[in-house]
């Protein structure tokens, strides 16, 4: 489990095409501290497994399903990525519960700068719109953010200078894709209420 509090802005150093999969090598001095084979690291909000670890770099395999459902397939050597290790038991939950299971992708539509923050509008897939509410939580490229405005086809978030400086959202421009993970609690509630409406509740 992750919290959506990005630990560092890493970099893709190699991409190997494996046909129905890809192997990425990524640099992240912070998240590789103490890393071992089999550990989990979130890359732009996608939970990946460490295959190899050497120095401040690690490799991870990405299956076809993940490439299809996320924006990882668009990464290339030199791409910057958000990196986060799983939260430790007993640690503060600084963001919200993030599983690293991307629900879909959106696209940066607009950026509106202000003196102390920036409003970013992001497209929203139709099948995810019902899970996104004003003042609710959403993970964008693995970043725990609060929804400012929720529409049927888009939502907005307000970014503070720290987020702009330390994550990929400070770099991405209109037209760029982002990974989206909606609040898992909303999905569980929908499933439970759906069963109750159908009379299937146990």
Automatic annotation (TrEMBL):
Q: Describe where the Lumazine-binding repeats fall, as residue ranges on this chain.
A: 1-96, 97-193
Enumerate the Gene3D superfamilies for this protein: 2.40.30.20
What EC numbers are recorded for this enzyme?
Answer: 2.5.1.9
The UniProt entry, under SUPFAM superfamilies, shows:
Riboflavin synthase domain-like
Give the UniProt keywords, A-Z. Repeat, Riboflavin biosynthesis, Transferase
Q: Which reaction does it catalyse?
A: 2 6,7-dimethyl-8-(1-D-ribityl)lumazine + H(+) = 5-amino-6-(D-ribitylamino)uracil + riboflavin
Keyword Membrane, does the record have it?
no
Where in the numbering of this chain does the Lumazine-binding domain appear? 1-96, 97-193
Q: What class of enzyme is it?
A: transferase
Pathway assignment reads: Cofactor biosynthesis; riboflavin biosynthesis; riboflavin from 2-hydroxy-3-oxobutyl phosphate and 5-amino-6-(D-ribitylamino)uracil: step 2/2
Question: Which InterPro entries does this chain map to?
Answer: ATP_synth_asu-like_sf (IPR023366), Lumazine-bd (IPR001783), Lumazine-bd_dom (IPR026017), Riboflavin_synthase-like_b-brl (IPR017938)
Q: Does the keyword Transferase apply?
A: yes
Which PANTHER family does this chain map to? RIBOFLAVIN SYNTHASE (PTHR21098:SF12), RIBOFLAVIN SYNTHASE ALPHA CHAIN (PTHR21098)
Q: What does this protein do?
A: Catalyzes the dismutation of two molecules of 6,7-dimethyl-8-ribityllumazine, resulting in the formation of riboflavin and 5-amino-6-(D-ribitylamino)uracil.
- Indicate what this protein is called per its UniProt record: Riboflavin synthase
What species does this protein belong to? Streptomyces thermogriseus
């Amino acid at each position: 489990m992750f919290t959506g509090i990005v630990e560092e802005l890493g970099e893709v150093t190699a991409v190997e095409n494996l046909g129905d999969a890809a192997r990425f090598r990524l640099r992240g001095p912070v998240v590789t501290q103490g890393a071992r084979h089999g550990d989990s690291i979130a890359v732009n909000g996608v939970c990946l497994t460490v295959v190899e670890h050497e120095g401040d770099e690690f490799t991870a395999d990405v299956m076809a399903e993940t490439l299809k459902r996320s924006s990882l397939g668009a990464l290339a050597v030199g791409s910057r990525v958000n990196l986060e290790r799983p939260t430790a038991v007993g640690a503060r939950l600084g963001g919200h519960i993030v599983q690293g299971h991307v629900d879909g992708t959106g696209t940066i539509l607009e950026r509106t700068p202000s003196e102390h923050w920036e409003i970013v509008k992001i497209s929203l897939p139709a099948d995810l719109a019902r899970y996104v509410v004003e003042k609710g939580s959403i993970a964008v490229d693995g970043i725990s953010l609060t929804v400012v405005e929720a529409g049927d086809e888009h939502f907005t978030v307000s970014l503070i200078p720290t987020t702009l400086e330390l994550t990929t959202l400070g770099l991405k421009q209109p037209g760029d894709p982002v990974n989206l993970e909606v609040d898992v609690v909303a999905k569980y509630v929908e499933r439970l209420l759906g069963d109750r409406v159908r009379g299937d509740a146990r």
